[in-house]
Predict the 3D structure of the following.
Amino acid sequence: MIDSLCDQAKKENIAVAGLYCDFLSQQEQTITNILGAILKQLAGRGSIPDYVREAFQEGKAEFGGRGLRLANLMRMLRIAIDSIPQVFICIDALDECLPKCLPELLESLRDIVRESLSTRIFFTGRPHVGDDVRRYFTSVVVIPISPNIDDIRNYLEMRLNRDSEPEAMSNDLRADIVRVILEKISDMCVGLFGISILSMMHTYQQLCADSSLFRSTWTLF
Amino acid sequence: MRWLSPLEPNNRHQSVRNDRFDGVGDWFLETREFREWRGSEGGSDKAVLFGSGNPGVGKTYLR
């Protein structure tokens, strides 16, 4: 997503900022750090802008040093966004954002979108976080993302082409691998499970590590 | 600029980009919703797009 927007950005005068929320680094992902990371990407494209330099000097003078407050950050973000014709902000895995931080993040982004009509925001997340998004952005457009069988088939073909032991592979085995994996995935997709392509690929990788082992175990997969 | 935030989303972005397989998720870029969101002018009506899906369906790896 970020890359396709960036390809467009090279042609047009737009800027793209992205962030990946992550359970593993929730403590670090405070509201100020998240918005700061977005500002860093929008403002840090050339030399450090004066308004950032000034805020830094002011922050240093305050008691306790580097206290960067939300209001200051929002002020700087507004300046950065106003200086760019169009800004895209992409935030991945919104559901992994710290729960206490999420409302504040959505509220801050809503304020930005209200003030800067050209700004576009793209979130991804598990379906349940859609309720939170809707609370702040009533006209949000939702696109359900599900595994695409063609994508998986292409990926499998690529992995099979790069198999580290091609001599252990036969056309039959190859066809079996593709058929079985796609069948299993179709079954899983109609079930209630969220399927993990990555964990499936991991299983596949393990199985293919020894193609002869694969012959005896593939029915279990 | 590190003073603004210790987070370095670019690192994660590089690893996602390296692991991504060309063409995966391109269907998303072709959807009417995405095109309208990217190309819409003015107004905050279509400002926000939400890609909703369960863990592992490939949300992060949309190009």
Observations:
- DSSP finds three helices and one strand in chain B.
